[in-house]
Specification:
binds magnesium ion; 13 helices; 48% helix; Rossmann fold; 8 strands; single chain; binds adenosine-5'-diphosphate; eight-stranded mixed β-sheet; alpha/beta
Length: 264
């Protein structure tokens, strides 16, 4: 069974792409078959973190959407490239060409797009996790991604604007019958140590906080030059991300069972 996850946030720069890349590498390191898809079509960035050049990225998600290539042409196997010892990691990048970006903004995605991608990747690559990295805010495409995915992860900083926006987001999603799990990122270190923080914030934004990632100078200083946890496997950020990956496997296994039960 494939589980689709969407990583989103109300505001920009919350660490969606960084989280997507690190979480995916660690899910692969835990033996999973993972695909990450850059759905941030207006400002794609995952390819930078994965260090995938346009020479390697011959075809993109945009080409696939408009029937210019098969899905296999756009999917890049990063397992060897990133020297991952276990599991599999694939990547579907978004085009950086202005005309491609404009076309997708104008025309958008079809409703069945996200489920179709996850299903195709399961059939061809036996994918277990398909992770969509999105654009901030609840524009139509992100909403569609959230609605069509099995689990959604809402990233939020501790900034009041983020928390308020995250509350609004969870309320909107509830109206559509969707629940987001929350990851607090870039949390000021003195707040991150408070064991009551997850339950306090869960109460404020009316959604369960499943992870707290402190702000680390080293992550910022890394400047998206590669996936941080590969370069610094012993750093506390990597340990916390590994714990989050394990929690996610646990959560999605339970969630999966519920989804299957509902769909049966
Ligand atoms: N926990 C963290 N501590 C410090 N810096 C972080 C952390 N998480 C992300 N960053 C940095 O924040 C910036 C924005 O992250 P990015 O993943 O590009 O956000 P988004 O995809 O939401 O726009 C990047 O410079 C990234 O390195
Ligand atoms: Mg991003």
């Amino acid at each position: 069974m494939v589980t689709s996850l969407v990583i989103h946030s109300y505001r920009g720069g919350t660490g969606k792409s960084t989280t997507t890349a690190n979480l995916s590498v660690l899910l692969a390191a835990l033996g999973k078959n993972v695909a990450t898809i850059d759905m941030d079509i207006t400002s794609p960035g995952l390819h930078v973190i994965y260090n995938v050049s346009s020479q390697i990225m011959k075809y993109t998600l945009n080409d696939y959407i408009y029937g210019k290539c098969a899905i296999e042409d756009a999917v890049i196997d990063l397992t060897q490239y990133l020297k991952l010892p276990r599991g599999k990691l694939y990547f579907l990048g978004s085009s950086m060409r202005p005309e491609d970006i404009v076309k997708v903004i104008r025309e958008g995605y079809s409703e069945g797009f996200f489920r179709h991608i996850a299903k195709s990747l399961k059939e061809i690559y036996d994918m277990e996790y398909v992770i969509f990295d999105t654009h901030p805010g609840l524009n139509e495409d992100t909403l569609l991604a959230v609605m069509s995915s099995d689990v959604s992860l809402l990233l939020s900083r501790m900034d009041k604007q983020d928390l308020y926006g995250s509350y609004i987001t969870t309320q909107i999603l509830k109206k559509f019958g969707r629940i987001s799990y929350v990851i607090l990122n870039m949390v000021p270190p003195h707040l991150a140590d408070n064991v009551d923080l997850p339950s306090e914030v869960s109460g404020i934004i009316d959604a369960t906080v499943i992870g707290v990632l402190p702000f680390y100078e080293e992550v910022l200083a890394h400047r998206s030059k590669g996936v941080f946890c590969i370069h610094h496997p012993k750093h506390p950020y990597s340990s916390k991300m590994l714990a989050l990956a394990k929690k996610l496997i646990e959560l999605t296994t339970t969630e999966r069972a519920t989804i299957d039960l509902i769909r049966r």
